[in-house]
Amino acid sequence: MLDQEGLWKSIAVPSRLYAKESQQHPLAGARISIKDNFKLAGIKTTITNRAFTQLYPAESETAEYVKTLLRLGAVIVGKSKMCSFAAGENPGDWIDFQCPFNPRGDHDHDTVGFLSRRLDLLHNLVRGTTYLEESKTLPVQILYPKEFFPVANEEQQILLENYICVLESHLKTPRTDFSLVERWAKCPPQAAGGKSLQDYLDNSTYHHYYDDAYQESDGFREDYRHAFEREPYVGPFVRLRWDKGATLTVEERNQAKAQLGVFRRWFHENVLKPDPFSLSHAVLVLPEGKADPEYRDDAV
Questions:
Q1: Which DSSP string corresponds to 239-282?
Q2: Is 107 helix (H, G, I), strand (E, B) or coil?
Q3: With 60 as the cut, is the pLDDT of residue 103 above it?
Q4: Residue 271 in contact with residue 180, Cβ under 8 Å?
Q5: Helix H or strand E encompassing 181
Q6: Would the pTM of this model clear 0.90, i.e. be above it?
Q7: 172 Cβ partners below 8 Å, 6+ apart?
Q8: Which of 110, 107, 87 is nearest to 237 (CA)?
Q9: Would you say 21 and 28 are in contact if contact means Cβ atoms under 8 Å apart?
Q10: Going by C-beta distance under 8 Å and a sequence separation of 6 or more, which residues neighbour residue 142?
């Protein structure tokens, strides 16, 4: 059942008893929720922004990636909320839609990339929907970058240590203490002109980040102005990204793109080297965010 705005829909989910995984349908019966920036025919894409929702009708087509999931046997059970324009907002920044409720009250529940209780299902999903080749051997090195470790939160560091110990046991190799800054200093790319890693990249990562955020919404802003003769309203963090992206010059954009390209090539030549059997000769371990809670009801 679909509401008049094409936003909320209740669907009957078939029993998994009728689904049998096969080589042709490795995701048979898998119930998958997709992030709300993927098109799904008959449903509005909101990107968690009311102006975007107001402007565009329900989708007339389904995204190619979602079609692939369906061809592999998956059952799409709904759409997951996300930060507005995938901007990485905190709960207090959610204005147009309610942030997904977190019973603990700390931080927010945004949509992750892939989440499942079954590793074999995740393996089938990645194998069936990406162009990644199957690895024939395991990586032979675990890189432990000292720029990121140890983390400030002791409990988080303990969890990371437990994970790395499991990884060491599985790969049968100890971690290798490693420094991106020192590796760059020993074998810098010629294009860096003798600059340190920090000095060379400078603001390039931020410039590229803000430029992408601004440019990818050009069509939406133009469509909204044409329809309503005013600027669309977006939350403060999205507005910050757009404002910064709008001030970048063509020279700054091109420089950021070129410098990140140099770094990417250097990284693959000197850090995670491609390998025909293991895809990459090493695993680079990095912490994901900070572990300290940010409680929803605390004053800011």
A1: HHHHHHHHH--HHHHHHHHHHHHHHHHHHHHHTS-EETTTEESE
A2: coil
A3: no
A4: yes
A5: helix 180-186
A6: no
A7: none
A8: 87
A9: yes
A10: 164, 167, 168, 171, 173, 174, 175, 176, 282, 283, 285
Q: φ and ψ at 231, to 5 degrees? A: -80, 145
Per-residue 3-state assignment (H helix, E strand, C coil) for 187-220: CCCHHHCCCCHHHHHCCHHHHHHHHHHHHCCHHH
Which letter does DSSP use for residue 2 in this model? B
Q: Say which residues have a Cβ less than 8 Å from residue 163's Cβ, sequence separation at least 6.
A: none
pLDDT in the model for residue 4: 56
Site of tokens 């008049």? 4
Quote the tokens at residue 11.
């669907």
Q: What is the pLDDT of residue 1?
A: 47
- The answer to whether the beta carbons of residues 236 and 88 sit under 8 Å apart is no
What are phi and psi for residue 215, nearest 5 degrees? -70, -35
Kindly tell me if the per-residue pLDDT of 189 is higher than 50. Answer: yes
Instruction: Find the farthest-apart pair of alpha carbons in the chain and give their distance in angstroms, rounded.
Output: 63
Q: Decide if 263 contacts 269 (C-beta within 8 A).
A: no
